[in-house]
Amino acid sequence: MKNKQERYAKEEDDVIIEMISRYPSNLGFAFNEAAKVLGRSESGIANYYYRHLKNKRNAVALVTTEGAMMNVKQARRPKTRRQGLSALEVAIIAVKNMSVEERKELLRAIMED
């Protein structure tokens, strides 16, 4: 394990974000996988994510036909299809709530694939 006073490198940020992107519906597992790769504690990674990374990037969302789930602490559950919103409408709302820079980053990520 790394010394708890070492700062996180950009590459470590990328690993954490990658794991969260792979497992958006199970953050505990994502933090555990990132801990294995980075040699840091799972709780240290979770704390770092919630204190630093989550605020820099828009939260990862899992959008399904039943609605969406955001991986943020204490997030309100969005309205589901049964409550009147389709998955597309939920995605549109999520994009509208992004900053201009976050929208540009999303478009770049979409165009890469």
How would you summarize the topology of this molecule?
Elements: H1 10-22, H2 27-38, H3 42-56, E1 61-64, E2 67-70, H4 87-96, H5 100-112
Antiparallel strand pairs: 1-2
Helix pairs in contact: 1-2, 2-3
Task: Outline the structure in words.
With 113 residues, the protein is mainly alpha-helical. The chain folds into two domains: 10-56; 61-112, no CATH class. Helix content is 56%, strand content 7%. It has five helices and two strands; from the N terminus they run H-H-H-E-E-H-H. The protein has helices spanning 10-22, 27-38, 42-56, 87-96, 100-112, and strands at residues 61-64, 67-70. A hairpin with a 2-residue loop joins strand 1 (61-64) and strand 2. Helix 1 (10-22) packs antiparallel against helix 2 (27-38). The longest helix has 15 residues, at 42-56.
Index terms:
single chain, 113 residues, mainly alpha, two-stranded antiparallel sheet, 5 helices
User: What's the structural domain tally?
Assistant: 2
Report the β-strand fraction as a percent range.
5-15%
The number of distinct helices, counting runs of at least 4 residues, comes to: 5
Number of strands: 2
First and last CA, distance: 35 Å
Average per-residue pLDDT, rounded, comes to 75
Low-confidence runs of at least 5 consecutive residues: none
Question: For the report, how would you describe the main beta sheet?
Answer: 2 strands, antiparallel
Radius of gyration: 15 Å
Helix content, binned percent: 55-70%
